[in-house]
Description:
The chain is mostly helical. The chain has a domain at 5-68. It is built from two helices and no strands. The model has no long low-confidence stretch (mean pLDDT 75).
Amino acid sequence: MKIKFPVIAKTATYGVMHMVISFFTAWFVTGNFYAALGISALEPSVQIFGYFIHEKAWQKWGRNHPSQAAPDWNVGGCGHVHDIGRPDHHHGHDHKH
């Protein structure tokens, strides 16, 4: 399994963010600084690992899987499907979108 740096960097920044949010949430709920510190070290550490596995699985099977393809959109009720990814795509008739 080849791991790319952006995935690791994204996982690390997510982990830091998660720990900070977890700390302040736990401190607010418990009122105990040290309990909040323990909770914010343990729970997000497990979540970081889970997120990393989720990210790798999503890269392999998620967004590129045929069952996850974007739907075709019939925009404006004109009877045909527009390529919404191309703003210059025009069919020769006027639309009021």
